[in-house]
Amino acid sequence: MMSKLRNWISSPNGVRKIMNVYGPYAGAGVKVTHIADDYRTASVEMNLHWYNTNYVGTHFGGSLYSMVDPMYMLLLMNNLGKDYIVWDKSACIDFIRPGKGKVTAHFELTDERLEEIRTATSGGDKFLPQWDVDIIDEKGELVARVNKVLYVRKKR
Asked: What highest taxon heads this organism's lineage (predicted)?
């Protein structure tokens, strides 16, 4: 019984469901809509609610950032495996236009990017890969762009 539960919890579908009730995501109204079976892609969305609006009635900036915060770390950890240390290092968000209605973000790990990280860390050195993540509204317009920097190192 515990083995089945442990396998479900660590499956992409299990992780997605857990994240959807995880306090910071649930509290901001963020919903994980997709995590690929191979942890190479993921998508999140957030509708505008009374509890995630700012003073002028648009998406609160902290909620916009929380949409993207853990996703690349999660994808990378599941692709690199237990021989690697993966942490969020830093982030910067550029607000382009007010967010209204539903906003979405998509994440993708490519073979080339994974190979770049494995090569850069093969000697035990740290590597600080960066990703730009676009947060898009229902019209397909850019609401915000987040630059994520991760810390990756092969365990000694």
From this structure: Bacteria
**What global pTM score does this model have?**
0.91
Judge contact between 57 and 98, C-beta under 8 A. Answer: no
Burial 65-88 (b: 16+ CB within 10 A, else e): bbbbbbbbbbbbbbbbeeebebee
| CATH number, domain 2-154, options 3.10.129.10, 3.30.70.20, 1.10.8.60, 3.90.1230.10 | 3.10.129.10
Please determine, for residue 5, whether its predicted confidence score (pLDDT) is greater than 60.
no
Whole-angstrom distance, CA of residue 143 vs CA of residue 95: 6
- The arithmetic mean of pLDDT across residues 60-68, rounded, is 95
- CA 59, CA 48: separation in Å to the nearest integer? 6
